[in-house]
Amino acid sequence: MKIVVGITGASGSIYGLRLIDTLRQAGHEVHAVVTDSGWQVLDYECGVSREAFAQRVDVLYDNHDIGAAIASGSFRMDAMVIVPCSMKTAGSIAHAVSDNLLTRAADVALKEYRPLLIVPRETPMHAIHLENLLKLSQAGARIIPASPGFYHRPQTLADLVDMLVGKICDQLGVEHELFARWQ
User: Fold this and answer.
1) Is 135 annotated as a binding residue?
2) DSSP characters for 134-180?
3) 77 a known binding residue?
4) Has 35 been labeled as part of a binding site?
5) Residue 180 included in any domain
6) How confident is the prediction along the chain (183 residues), in pLDDT tens digits per residue?
7) CATH (domain of 10)
8) Is 99 part of any domain?
C-alpha cells in the first residue's frame, strides 16, 4: 500500500514515528508531510531532525508545496493518517480549509473517498473540538483518539505506543503483532 502520514504540532510525535517504522517494516510505501509546528515537536519530544526523519520515509514533502503530488486526486494513495493531529489541523480539515499541503492532502482523501484516519491527542476537548471531530467522522474520516488500552497489561511506554499504533494498523488492514489481542 501507499500511505501518506501527516504529523502536526500536537504532542505525540512518537506515534507517527512508530507508525512509519511499522509500515516500512511491513513493506508499505510511506509518503510524509510535517507541519512547521510538527517539526518543532518532533525535535523536542523525540530528538528527530528533518534529515533523520527523511531517512525513515520513501518521500517527504514540504508542507508549503501546495502543488506536490499528494495535493491531487490523481495521486494514487491508499490511505492517509494524521498522527498526531492537532485541533487546529482537525478544524481546518473539518471546514475544508486547505491552507497547506497536509490539509489539502486530507481534503483530497475525503473527496476521493479514500481512508482518512485522524488521531487527535488533545485532552480535555471542548464542544468545538468535538463538533469538528464529529464533522470529520460524518465526512468519512475515522477518528482514533490517542487513548491506548490497558487490557494487554503494558509494562513500558513502548507498549502503550504500540497499542495505539496497532489500532491504526488494524484500520489500515496492516498485519502486525504490536500488542496481544483480547482472548
Assistant:
1) no
2) HHHHHTTPEE--S---STT---SHHHHHHHHHHHHHHHHT----SSP
3) no
4) yes
5) no
6) 999 999 999 999 999 999 999 999 999 999 999 999 999 999 999 999 999 999 999 999 999 999 999 999 999 999 999 999 999 999 999 999 999 999 999 999 999 999 999 999 999 999 999 999 999 999 999 999 999 888 889 999 999 999 999 999 999 999 999 988 887
7) 3.40.50.1950
8) yes
